[in-house]
Amino acid sequence: MREIRTFCLRSLVPLRIFPLLGAIGLMSLCRPPELQNACDPSSFSDSDRALSEWNKNNPSPVSALLPFLLPGQIFDCPLFPNKKDSSSPPPQTPPSGLSYNPSSLALVFGNPMTSVSPIITGSVDSYEVSPSLPQGLQINSKSGEISGTPSLGQTTSTYTVSAKNSNGSTSTTLSIAVANPSYVVSMPRGLLKTGETAVDIAGADRTFTPGGTQGLIWQRCSAGQDQNSACTGTATNLNWGAAVSYCSSLTLANRSWRLPTIDELVNLTDISKTSNTIDATNFPNTQDFWYWSSTPNKFNSSTYWMVNFSNADIGYNPETFAHYTRCISGSALQGTYSYTDLFDGSIKENQTGLIWKKCSQGQAYDLVTCTGVSQLQTWDLAVDSCYSEPPTGTWRLPNTNEIKTILDYEKATAPVINTTFFPSTDTSYWTSTTDPSNIGQAYFVWFDNTISTGSFSKTFKSATNRTRCVKGP
Question: pTM value?
């Protein structure tokens, strides 16, 4: 074999003038049989290199045809003498040993966390976390670093972080708790709780959080009090304009604050209590009097809605009056309710999931609207009337917080309800909520009244009001 190689190499000079066929035939004899990979320069013979160099240095129609006439030869490959082909990187190995130190994070609402980076062996293309980190925190998908400022309190939760590359993945878990500082309280949106007891079979004591887990951040203490866990000091009475200014200038927890809407403020009431109708653990030293909302009463110029935490009443007063103030942080809840007509005589409120009768009791649904006259009923009859709606036991008389979700304080004309979805709504409607200080009385709401539109009142259960039934969510 050595002699053949030498002969062929010496014959390369005549190849310059030999016809093309002679060159091809001669090189066919010279091709070493052990050369299987034409792109492996380490296996090139001297004659292989010489022919490749000749073809490169003598451009002609002949040299252009050689790669096609000899498809298995080295013409298709670059010459890298004494080097291996390095165009394909070595395969990745899966990452391993992922961890964080510390693996348990105790954070405080409003305080930036000290970022934590992963400890890992091997290369990583991307990082992912499930479920989503607490509100205000984020993970860098390239480096795996976790950072941010938590903006919502939560109890300890576990999160799984995964590190991946093209050949595999590894994962680890870490726990995160976010404590509320003493001066703010994190509350769910739309807390439908009235403290109902067995006295009222139709009003279950239930809660839900519409809109997912996003919460509202409340100032724990009233304006004027010391912003601490006990809310010591004296609360200040402010007129409406001063209350707005106080909240907008508040800087607690490095957040922006505002005066709450009436929808938000009424969510703090607890009608199961006979006085100080609010969660006193989270909101200590709350005053038994009126607190301002930001919502104007569109039926009475220059007046604004309020909540009285001595008895959970809703009312309004001129902006020049002085009342107490508690601020809120987060996107406004008011005006976010929306409806879907199910075309079976019922309406779904999309945020809460509650399903309402389109028509009042006594009216009939004719596939388009509500016909007939709404029926006046005593409280007991209203409870039974809803319970008896088919299928029996599915429908109920709504409690005060449920019926608030169809009150529309944005309307400037009565009735204060969306009449596209709830046509022919009358003046006053029962709730299932019993007056805790007098179980012979129950609350009702005014959808249309010259003075009290949008307000709640209570009366003896033997009195009569209209009825609208609800079910779900």
Answer: 0.60
